[in-house]
């Protein structure tokens, strides 16, 4: 069997917004959409990191075998004959709800305000606890520190509405090597202002294992 034939047999045929697409083995719906230049908004997703579906902004509606459901496209795998809708009424309702929550969670973020406005969301019904907050707690910074850098200098403390970005044991630590990866993947720029609280006084570090 030729390599060309094998590749074709491994592909999955389905539709996104009525457009016929092919997914390679292992691709998610989001990856397939991006390969076909179909826009699905994302915040927590980054191609260098394992997807975890934290923000739920990338939801799509899936129709198959007479059933429909709304799910995160960064986690969902396509199946043959599946119909995917990225702009259905159900999908847009979920996205508006998510964006309202984000406007309350990080009202100081210009990126979030701009993204919300593009979806027709200019105000939030949810209570704003910190008008100066920019961090949306998407988890990109924690993931890149753990998965890519491998030093685990960042974590999330508490749960639910009290969830916050912290360092282990809530103190600046020598695990941070000052690489700036967390800053580079932050979708709102909130990490730039918090980097010194994570890494402590980097000027006091010596040795090959630390940045200078």
UniProtKB/TrEMBL annotation:
Protein name per UniProt: 2Fe-2S iron-sulfur cluster binding domain-containing protein
Species the sequence originates in: Desulfobacca acetoxidans
GO-annotated cellular components: membrane
Every copy of the 2Fe-2S ferredoxin-type domain together lies at 10-90
Q: Which GO terms describe its molecular function?
A: 4 iron, 4 sulfur cluster binding; metal ion binding; NADH dehydrogenase (ubiquinone) activity
Which InterPro entries does this UniProt record tie to the protein? 2Fe-2S_ferredoxin-like_sf, 2Fe-2S_ferredoxin-type, 4Fe4S_Fe-S-bd, 4Fe4S_Fe_S_CS, NADH_UbQ_OxRdtase_75kDa_su_CS, PSI_iron-sulfur_center
Q: Cite the Pfam families for this sequence.
A: Fer2_4 (PF13510), Fer4_7 (PF12838)
Residue ranges constituting the 4Fe-4S ferredoxin-type domain according to the UniProt record: 124-157, 166-196
């Amino acid at each position: 069997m030729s390599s060309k034939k094998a590749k074709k047999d491994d592909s999955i045929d389905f539709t996104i917004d009525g457009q016929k697409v092919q997914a390679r083995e292992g691709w998610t719906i989001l990856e397939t959409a991006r390969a076909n230049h179909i826009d699905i908004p994302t915040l927590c997703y980054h191609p260098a990191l394992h997807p975890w579906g934290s923000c739920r902004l990338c939801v799509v509606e899936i129709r198959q075998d007479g059933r429909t459901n709304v799910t995160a496209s960064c986690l969902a795998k396509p199946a043959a004959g599946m119909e995917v809708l990225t702009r259905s009424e159900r999908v847009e309702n979920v996205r508006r709800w998510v964006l309202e929550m984000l406007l309350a969670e990080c009202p100081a973020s210009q990126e979030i305000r701009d993204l919300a406005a593009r979806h027709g969301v200019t105000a939030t019904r949810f209570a704003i606890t910190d008008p100066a907050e920019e961090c949306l707690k998407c988890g990109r910074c924690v993931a890149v520190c753990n998965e890519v850098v491998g030093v685990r200098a960042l974590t999330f403390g508490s749960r639910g509405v009290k969830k916050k970005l912290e360092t282990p044991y809530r103190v600046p630590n020598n695990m941070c090597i000052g690489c700036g990866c967390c800053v580079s993947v932050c979708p709102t720029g909130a990490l730039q202002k918090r980097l010194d609280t994570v890494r402590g006084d980097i000027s006091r570090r010596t040795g090959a294992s630390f940045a200078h």
